[in-house]
Amino acid sequence: MSLASVPNLESELDELYALPAEQFTKARNELAVRLRKAHQTEAAAMVRALKKPSAVAWIANLLARNEPASVDALLNAADALRSVQQRALAGGAGPDEVDEASARERDALRILLSLARASLGPKATPPLLDRLAQTLRAAAFDESVRPLLRRGRLVVDLKAVGFGPLEAVTPRRRGDEVTGAARERVALLRTAARRLAADAQAAESAAADAREAARILGDEANEKRAEADQAAAKLADAEQSLSTRR
Q: What's this model's pTM, rounded to 2 decimal places?
């Protein structure tokens, strides 16, 4: 196969990340083979090492491709919020400006979550949407990750830590900083607890389903064993009767 078989690696990668999640691994391996046959060994190794996006990352990538204007709105709102926070710390912006910028950022995020909910339907569980919100917010504020979100190439869930409106626009005392850090930790732990509780409930439900399925299969096995034993008994009787006649 010639080099022309992979004319544009970036375009190929865009197509790869646009595939349904269940098709990613097979398509990635096929692309790596094509690159290797085209003597692009370094690119082939890079592609072969690509990780399949998590469920949340895949949804974020889907939003980036299908709703680019809404994703840009979130990124722009994050830029504006970061800017006004920095000005607030320097005494150049007041609480009202911080609140307004924070509201715009929250609204932009809320729109994306609504779009995701409409796209996913029943699959849009609260825990999943919570993880999606954190991933989108973290990506919007992280300069190294923003290009991946905009291109629709996120791979893992991200954690949004320390973002959002300032608790105050004036320098805080040490005690306030400790209180703020404790409050943030409590909020993060609360979110983690909700997620773990939801995961535990899902696992318990799956276990209950598995136990019920095992019970049904056990009953069926017992019935089949009883039928087999009856058939064996009838066969033994028939053989005994035949032997007697002889």
A: 0.60
Q: Length of the chain, please?
A: 246
Neighbouring C-beta atoms of residue 183, cutoff 10 Å: 11
Residue of 143, 91, 140 lying closest to 112 (CA atoms):
140
In a domain, 207, yes or no: no
**Distance between CA 3 and CA 109 in Å, rounded?**
42
- Residue range 25-46: average pLDDT? 90
Amino acid type, 40: Q
Q: Are residues 13 and 110 in the same domain?
A: no
- DSSP assignment, residue 156? S
122 DSSP assignment: G
Quickly list H helices, the chain: 9-18, 24-37, 41-48, 55-66, 68-89, 95-120, 126-141, 146-151, 174-245
Whether 141 and 135 have beta carbons less than 8 Å apart is answered as: no
Q: Given pLDDT bands bounded at 50, 70 and 90, which one contains residue 99?
A: confident
Task: Tell me which residue range forms the domain holding 19.
Answer: 3-48
Amino acid at 32: A
